[in-house]
């Protein structure tokens, strides 16, 4: 699924700790705490992404590193299946992610299940990723 300029923000969604929900096609993002550390004992500011039955919990500080260009891949946290949010071309050439992103536009960002033969859960074009990045920047980081 590719998502482009149809990204939008919802109005009131009952989420008192962050901005309204962000959407692009079937990809939905919502501010949500992420459990990290030994046995998930610590909670950090995060984002939950939902797309086509896949759910990823990503740390806001890691997403901001991706937005700034310091990293090209962000790994999900938690008990669910492992997913990556990755810029096309950022994965090692012999990785599963490289195969999943082959043929995508070079400025795209994809939500990738860490399973061979499984297509991306979502693909954001440059415009949609820029919208997502602006949304992420509105999330207050709690220490």
From TrEMBL:
Annotated region described as Disordered, given as residue ranges: 1-24
Top-level division of the source organism's lineage: Bacteria
Ranges of biased composition (kind: Basic and acidic residues): 1-12
Protein name according to UniProt: DUF397 domain-containing protein
Species of provenance: Georgenia alba
Source lineage: Bacteria, Bacillati, Actinomycetota, Actinomycetes, Micrococcales
């Amino acid at each position: 699924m590719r998502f482009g300029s149809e990204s939008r923000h919802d109005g009131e969604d009952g989420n008192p700790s962050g901005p309204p929900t962000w959407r692009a096609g079937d990809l939905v993002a919502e501010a949500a705490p992420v459990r990290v550390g030994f046995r998930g004992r610590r909670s950090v500011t995060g984002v939950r992404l939902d797309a086509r039955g896949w759910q990823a919990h990503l740390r806001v500080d890691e997403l901001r590193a991706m937005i700034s260009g310091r990293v090209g891949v962000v790994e999900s946290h938690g008990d669910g299946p492992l997913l990556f949010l990755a810029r096309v071309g950022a994965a090692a050439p012999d990785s599963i992610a490289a195969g999943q992103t082959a043929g995508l536009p070079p400025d795209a960002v994809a939500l990738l299940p860490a399973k061979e033969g499984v297509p991306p859960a979502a693909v954001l074009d440059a415009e949609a990723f820029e919208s997502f990045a602006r949304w992420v920047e509105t999330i207050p980081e709690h220490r």
